[in-house]
Write a structure and sequence with these properties.
Strand 1 and strand 2 form a beta hairpin. Helix 2 packs antiparallel against helix 3, helix 2 packs antiparallel against helix 9 and helix 5 packs across helix 9. Helices cover 78% and strands 2% of the residues. The protein has a two-stranded antiparallel sheet with strand order 1-2. It is an all-alpha fold and 210 residues long.
């Protein structure tokens, strides 16, 4: 016998109806739990991204160096993060930062645009874009399949082992992406550092007047 709270009435159901009723309740509980976990994970992910972004910003603007020096290092990191295969980027970006007199911190962190998580999205898209630029008749599906070994081994040998067309498309796509993101990174970082320092100077001047 099941009693309904709203009406106060009770009614006897057959075992089949009771089982169906229990299944509905179970499905509702599962849906509610799924919704809760989904929202919880969203909050956690956004919180994690926000914390990492704040830490990244603090490292960027907190370096004791001229804004152009800091921006140059981040731009170098971005360039090699886009154009060089994952795993050898730091071997190129850090020496380049010494030669071009840019931030070594920026040259290191700037390469992290391609990391253990993002390369599974960026590399196939980058290669597909490069194939379009070079006029190669490569489908996204074929590129994604061919890039599996590259993503697994993450080396130049693995890149050129998949074929010349794929390798050239990868490099062309990376250079195209670098051509866009490198100057944007330079001017964005320079502006952020200058704005932060101007705000800091204004706060100091305001405190002195008080």
């Amino acid at each position: 016998m099941i009693c309904f709270p709203k009406t106060g009435k009770s009614q006897i159901f057959s075992p089949r109806k009771i089982v169906a009723f229990k299944k509905i309740l179970l499905l509702r509980k599962k849906a509610a739990l799924k919704s809760f976990l989904k929202n919880f994970l969203k909050v956690k992910i956004f919180s994690y991204i926000a914390q990492k972004s704040k830490a990244l910003y603090a490292k960027m603007v907190g370096e004791d160096a001229p804004p152009s020096y800091i921006a140059r290092g981040w731009a170098i990191g971005m360039f090699f993060g886009c154009s060089a295969p994952f795993g050898i980027q730091l071997l190129i970006s850090i020496p380049c930062a010494f030669i071009l007199r840019g931030s070594k911190i920026g040259a290191t962190i700037g390469t992290f645009i391609t990391n253990h998580f993002s390369i599974f999205i960026i590399y196939p898209l980058q290669t597909y874009g490069g194939a379009k630029l070079l006029g190669l008749g490569l489908s996204y599906g074929a590129i994604e399949e061919a890039m599996k070994s590259v993503l697994e081994k993450q080396s130049f040998d693995a890149l050129f082992a998949v074929g010349t067309d794929i390798a050239m498309a990868f490099l062309a796509g990376g250079l195209a992406m670098a051509a866009v993101l490198t100057p944007l990174t330079y001017f964005a970082v320079k502006a952020l550092v200058e704005r932060n320092r101007a705000r800091h100077s204004a706060q100091i001047d305001g405190a002195k007047k008080i």
